[in-house]
């Protein structure tokens, strides 16, 4: 008999309401903390509200992962309707969310099969959609987990920071690098490696950095089989739409999804942070 399998993720995935409803995806929120007051992202503070508020905060906001209790409460509820769960979460190198989910599932006695996305944001949606398809086809939770882990190994992603000042406040770059970068108008491109965010290139002027980011994506399309691309944006949705049109002209059949960057991730890059993520084969 086919097992009833729940799909679970966290709010850094920025899963849109339509996708969440269509595949019955259960979302546990991370939080941002402004001046000792905590807000669950996308519930108690919207992405737009967060990025409007961020530049005006004197004290750098912090973030917190979901509590064991919030996960355990969800799993207790799911036990009545599902035999097991597939949980896809933000990279375990960026947050302890995945480990917290595993601990809570053990406490609740709920069979949970976790998948480390190795990134986050727009890379999570395709994994969940594929998981739903596999569940509908009758795959077991273990089979789904293995296939999604293999799929996650093909994820690629690049980010362009919106603010060196925010990166400095968050402890991502030193004061010296902030001053030098500001003077030279340097805009860092970052990439993902083994689940960690690492420097990729330093480019002078924002315009050149944006062009380089687009070029990286276009080069991948012409060199490999690329699927499930996501364009990540903060306060720059109109620009993201322009990028989508440009890339779509190069590859009309490619699925491209616009994905707002979660406040929990965006707190370190600031407004105007953008990125592109995709799955690459061959």
UniProtKB/TrEMBL annotation:
Alphabetical keyword list: Lipid-binding
PROSITE patterns for the chain: DEGV
Highest rank taxon of the organism: Bacteria
Keyword Lyase: no
Classification via InterPro entries: DegV, DegV_C, DegV_domain_contain
Pfam families: DegV (PF02645)
SUPFAM superfamilies: DAK1/DegV-like (SSF82549)
GO MF, one annotated term: lipid binding
Coiled coil region boundaries: none
NCBIfam families attached to this UniProt entry: DegV
Protein's UniProt name: DegV family protein
